[in-house]
Amino acid sequence: MTRAIRAKFVEGGVEFALSVAVAIVALLIGLLFVIASGVGPGTGAKAFIDGAFSGQLNLAGTLSKMVPLTLVALGWIVAFRSGRFHVGFPGQLLFGGLVVSIVALKPDLPIGIHLPLCILAGAVGGALWAGIAAWMWARRGVNEILSTLLLNLVAIQVLAWWVRQPFHDHTTPLPLTPPLPSSAFYPTLLTNTDLHWDILLIPICVVAVAFILTRTTFGFELRMVGSNPHVAQHAGISPERIGSWSILLSGALAGLAGASLVIAGTTPAMGEDFGSDYGFTGIAVALLARNSPWGAVPAALLFAALIQGGGVMEGTVGISSSLVDVLQGVMIVFVLAATTILYFARRNRRRVRPPTVAGPAVPNEPADATVIA
Amino acid sequence: MSQVIATFGFGPFDMNWLSTALVLTTPLLFPAVGELISERAGVLNVGLEGMMLSGAFFSYMVTAKTGSIPAGAFAGIGGGLFFGVIMALLSIEAKADQIVAGVGINLAGVGLTSYLFDQMYSSGTQIVVPTVTPLRIPGLADIPHFGPAIFDQDPLLYIAFLLVPVSWFLLKRTRWGLAVRASGELPAAADTAGISVRRVRWFSVLLASALAGVGGSYLVIVDVGIFHQQMTNGRGFLALVAVIFGRWSPWGVLGACFALGGTDALQLRLADQSSVPHQVWVILGIIAVAVVLYRAVVRRRIARPLDAAILVAVAVFGFVTFAVNPPWDLPQQFWQALPYLVALAVLGGALTRAHMPAKLTLPYRRGEG
To answer: Average pLDDT for residues A166-192, to the nearest whole number?
Structure first.
């Protein structure tokens, strides 16, 4: 083993240990909340672990929730590596689902054609919605974080209209689409549970994103734009072009997540706001994974267990499932703090590159950028 | 005159609208003024939404417990400050990425308030807390027509609007304001001149979070008297947009907040209408023409032929629809999304970032700036 490879392993090990530490501290804080609401720590922990992992039904619930979380996390990683912080996953996920509902309801096709079309529709829908933000950023210089925050709010209204007016099921007063045909659905992996074959998207997309980022020209250009837009520009790589493509790709991944929520869900019809929460939780997943596509899998497992276990816990011991949202925020804050500690610890040994998460943001306009490093 | 007003009965002449618009501008103005100062000092605080929610929840909790509105307002400040301290620690001390930190604070704010609300108030009927009574300003409130809408409002509203000239004066005419602006534009120079960039930024971030907390508590102790989950409904994000649209100046921020708050009020008025009222088209046309004239006459140029073509098309569309008055029916969801759509259009059209503080989002390290 060469020294460089060993150093890389040590670095990876340290980062992994840091994420584990952050997760443990966050879980302990969660336990404090549980104790504060008058439930014994043992009872609370047991209710949570049972809810997340015990029995076929709960385990399948946890695994199926990993799919959208991993996909959104990968979306964040792709955009983040090119220096674009967009948070439009909820909107892209919802719009992806909306486009899926068009394709799912219209044609009468065999599952071999219909399902791939629906999956594709999800990715296209997510990319389209992301395309608005990408265009506004590249052509109008609009900060992508603001535009995507607003587009999320718009998407919720668009979907609310969609399931009430053009795609409303007239047999029910509820805001729902008509039941989607079974040929549009992912087949279940485990009968009578939430677990569908879309779980395969996790290995496929993780490998694909890792491959694109590290083994292709596009991935190289993307990382170059992300780490230093000036150098990239001098090398003839347009930060606007690469940045836009990375936002589109990230939107497509969020759209796939939306498709999974619609056509691998428990209900046959699509309702309003069917899961925009996953869009924000996925960001926490990516940050806990320290922006590594491989790390996104264990981080997604943790958050999926939190959502599933937290949901069950609400029923068994009466603790609000919003606790999961608190822990998301807590984890992001701790990840940032831990990154800084790591940065200063490393800097004391030798001058190294700025940290990946806590580094200076890349300003929108390369002309304005004064990179402090 | 009153005849004309009655027949027009819309826009700035509609007193119900004006009154609502002012009330809806206030919860945007508090966080936006704070954010303006924080951004001028170089810290982009994306966590406004979380801070507002926290302010709203804690002011609801304290007012429900004590029955005292001032106590509730201070609790709102405290709720905002709680996240402000976290934001300052992350962005100034840890030099972490400000945008990621803000996203984390938003999530934590939504989570914490939803969790506490679920745990504390989910059972039984919801307690309605007392709300602030209007403070009628004698003399001014007797101005016919406009008086009651503007000068018969709650005291917090007056404070919000007074913050604009006050912050303008502080930023432009005091040493403190100079220190704030220097910290955002050229922190190394400020440091050399003996200004503690760290202290200025700490103060600005805490001020922004406290004002965001007040903005959140305004929704509870003035507007509705109850709390519900995610009740701020994107107002923290609109305040961020207002700072950009207002080009980082207090008066610009006031105009931007009023435009967004006014759209929100329009949305409330129009959501229950069966078809788009006549006057909306007129206003659309007038705005487009005004923008064209501003570009052509004041700035003496049309930025791009495409922009001009779009504006002219909107203007023509506005006047044609005014003449024809089509019975178009727009869905309720469109009106609800209108403030966000306006904010997006504003961001897309704002074009210049010439007024943006040069070191916005960049942490300051001694000897490296």
So the answer is: 87
> Which residues in chain A have Cβ-Cβ distances shorter than 8 Å to B271?
none
DSSP 8-state code for residue B10: -
A24 Cα to chain B: minimum distance (Å): 17
* Chain B nearest-CA residue for A359: B97
Nearest to A280 among B95, B107, B115 (CB): B107
The mean pLDDT of B325-354, rounded to a whole number, is 75
User: Model's pTM, two decimal places?
Assistant: 0.87
Interface test with B, best of A81, A86, A159, A336 (most B CBs within 10 A): A336
Buried b (16+ CB within 10 A) or exposed e, A236-260: ebebbebbbbbbbbbbbbbbbbbbb
Banded model confidence at residue B293, pLDDT cuts 50, 70, 90 = low
Residue A16 is encoded by which pair of tokens? Answer: 């992994």
Show the tokens assigned to A180.
């989607």
Confidence label for B298 from pLDDT (cuts 50, 70 and 90): low
Max CA-CA distance within chain A?
A: 69
What pLDDT sits at residue B76? 96
* ipTM of predicted complex: 0.85
In B, which residues are within 8 Å of A319 by CB distance?
Answer: 119
- Torsion angle, alpha carbons of B220, B223, B225, B227, to 10: -40
How far is Cα B264 from Cα B276, in angstroms, rounded to an integer? 16
pLDDT, position A273: 83
How is residue B152 annotated by DSSP? Answer: E
